[in-house]
TrEMBL record:
Pfam families: Citrate_synt. GO terms for molecular function: citrate synthase activity. Its EC number is 2.3.3.16. InterPro entries: Citrate_synth-like_lrg_a-sub, Citrate_synth-like_sm_a-sub, Citrate_synthase, Citrate_synthase_sf. GO terms for biological process: carbohydrate metabolic process; tricarboxylic acid cycle. The keyword Acyltransferase applies. Pathway: Carbohydrate metabolism; tricarboxylic acid cycle. One of its GO terms (cellular component) is cytosol. Belongs to the citrate synthase family. It comes from Nocardioides zeae. This is citrate synthase (unknown stereospecificity).
Length: 276
């Protein structure tokens, strides 16, 4: 019977040492390697360039906090209910990272990569990318599909993260085909759908992470990593200046009973309105 083996290239411990990525944690990494670089190395098993580190760091900063989002509110209310469970409050906020909040980072990266991967030839100028984008937007419109990362519930005129991230990508030489395609979608979609939507910063992050050759199935994980930092800040503020109880009481005091019969009637009325 063969001896059990569980291979790993990550952390290992003995009675007196800790190694990570084959290096001594205390002697080789602590105080010498930043968290952003370490995350990149742990995920890819490659050492990033300074430009890649700066780009990844900017992406994480872009997603860390966005105010009283549902994820932040969930964390604060859970903290209100269980102040002895910081882990529960953090988890509550992270569990809200789905298709509407945070998840768009992975969805956009996956969407763009599917297009880029299928190209016979990668365009080398904006005109070429615009042609690809017209096909992409046209196909999505014909199939009545939304394009991940196009539009934002708050930033109707401009998502300020978008130009900043694109500029950093150019400065650091990590502007690749995914960002190029997403920018082209931003340029051409108004002529096809008849209105202008902003390029969502979370979507730009997805494009940028794909250009950094990070694993596509893990892109949402980077969004969650960033938001974990933001949630810690939210909980610290809840300790300093609590709003959880006020939020709870605002809902409690404005709750209005609706009979089951009226609720069903309203639901059926909404259904008829949507189908007309």
């Amino acid at each position: 019977m063969s001896e059990l083996r569980f291979p790993t290239s990550l952390g290992m411990s003995t009675t007196s040492t800790i190694t990570l990525l084959g290096e001594d944690l205390a002697g080789d990494l602590m105080g010498k390697v930043g968290l952003t670089e370490l995350v990149y190395r742990m995920v890819t098993l490659r050492t990033p360039t300074p430009g890649q580190v700066r780009m990844l760091d900017a992406c994480l900063l872009a997603l860390a906090d966005h105010g009283f989002t549902p994820t932040a509110i969930a964390a604060r209310l859970t903290f209100l209910s269980a102040p002895d469970s910081v882990q529960g409050a953090m988890a509550a906020g992270l569990l809200g990272g789905g298709s509407r909040f945070l998840g768009v980072t992975e969805d956009c990266g996956q969407f763009l990569h599917a297009v880029v991967e299928d190209l016979d030839e990668v365009p080398d100028d904006e005109a070429g990318w615009d042609e690809v984008a017209r096909e992409v937007v046209g196909a999505a419109r014909a199939e009545r599909r939304t394009i991940p990362g196009l539009g934002h519930p708050v930033h109707k005129e401009l998502d300020p993260r978008t130009p900043a991230l694109v500029a950093i990508a150019h400065e650091e030489g990590v502007h690749g085909p995914h960002l190029a395609l997403f920018e082209a979608i931003g340029r051409v979609h108004p002529e096809i759908i008849g209105r202008r939507l902003v390029l969502n910063g979370a979507g730009v992050v997805g494009a940028a992470l794909a250009d950094l050759d990070l694993p596509l199935p893990l892109l949402r994980g980077f969004a969650l990593l960033a938001r974990a930092a933001g949630l810690l800040g939210q909980l610290a503020e809840e300790l300093r200046s609590p709003i959880g109880m006020d939020a709870y009481l605002a809902v409690e005091h404005h709750a209005v009973f609706v009979s089951p019969e009226d609720a069903l009637a309203a639901q059926e009325g909404d259904g008829e309105g949507r189908s007309s």
